Amino acid sequence: MAPVLELRNLSLGYPGLTLFKHLSLDVDRGATLAVLGANGSGKSTFVKMLLGLMEPLCGRLNWPSGRPLEIGYLAQLTEFDRRFPIRVRDLAAMGAWRGFGLWSGLGRSGRNRVAAALDEAGILELADRSLHTLSGGQLQRALFARVILQDAPLILLDEPFAAVDQSTEAHLLSIIKRWRQEGRAVVLVVHDLSSVLDHCSHALLLGNGTATHGLVKDVLTQDQLVAQGYLSQSQASWMFKGSYDHREPTHV
Ligand SMILES: Nc1ncnc2c1ncn2[C@@H]1O[C@H](COP(=O)(O)OP(=O)(O)OP(=O)(O)O)[C@@H](O)[C@H]1O
């Protein structure tokens, strides 16, 4: 699959703090890249760099299309102010504003697109509810509907499953599956070694000043996770003996 984005010899950090050096990777169409690392390893910084909010210390991002692509972005739920007084359908419609313009009306086809996105996210019946009345899982579904409407070739999800139950997670994974089948590239920041990784093709592990990238099964090894400070030796021994093992991605 052709890349939508190429990172070349990238170093990332702040004055006096280098988080990692010399990262080169391609984000391919149809790939699902999980970004993991201990607290403070640089996941949020990596997200900011992808969004163009900060420059790498050195190296570069290449956009094979010749210009930066639109990124469908889902921020961490904790960063979202749900007291903002709008309805679910208005929040979702914000994802489509490029298509219809900020100050013009949605029109029938726009309204149909919003309804279809809310339906796919499983919250059509909540369309007229105010955001502050939603549960965490319902709000996450509304934010997914907004990303659906962005219709972007590259999708960046920052901890999309942090506050959702198993059935919501499975539902949101089915949306990610569709995106992947359509050839979109999906980058997800995930916090734990959960079953989500079964649905990812590649992993980027940050920590202890390094960034390791490759197939999930090659990167998330016991030795690597300990070396990069993600797990202690005893946690790793417990985990690799028990619930977590290396499976090939099942690609929901
Ligand atoms: N604007 C900044 N200026 C200087 N240092 C920063 C800045 N933002 C973050 N850092 C530092 O960079 C490091 C990486 O932070 P970052 O937020 O990217 O980590 P993270 O992996 O997302 O952490 P967490 O899992 O705790 O959210 C931390 O040591 C943090 O203190």
From TrEMBL:
Pfam families in UniProt: ABC_tran (PF00005)
Keywords annotated in UniProt: ATP-binding, Ion transport, Nucleotide-binding, Transport, Zinc, Zinc transport
GO molecular function, one term: ATP binding
PROSITE patterns recorded: ABC_TRANSPORTER_1 (PS00211), ABC_TRANSPORTER_2 (PS50893)
Domain ABC transporter: residue ranges: 5-233
PANTHER family: IRON TRANSPORT SYSTEM ATP-BINDING PROTEIN HI_0361-RELATED, METAL TRANSPORT SYSTEM ATP-BINDING PROTEIN TM_0124-RELATED
UniProt similarity note: Belongs to the ABC transporter superfamily.
Protein name, as recorded: Metal ABC transporter ATP-binding protein
